[in-house]
Design a protein that fits this description.
mainly alpha, 2 helices, rod-shaped
Length: 69
């Protein structure tokens, strides 16, 4: 590892930016994971809601049905 003088802070920062790269990679992975978790959560929620709506609408359909003999 090279040692730079104290004035050259910018060069030191940009050449040893492994920590910054790691932070960016972790942020990107966190965003991807949150996106998939949010999509899965919305899909499960929507599925439950649509099942509930189907049951309720079927109940109302068959309970208010008028049979003509």
């Amino acid at each position: 590892m090279k040692r730079y003088p104290l004035v050259d802070n910018e060069k030191l920062f940009f050449e040893n930016a492994n920590f910054l790269k790691l932070i960016f990679i972790l942020l990107i992975l966190l965003e991807i994971g949150y996106y998939f978790l949010y999509r899965y959560d919305c899909a499960v929620f929507h599925q439950n809601v649509s099942i509930y709506n189907t049951v309720i609408s079927n109940y109302y359909l068959y309970s208010h049905k008028v049979y003509s003999y």
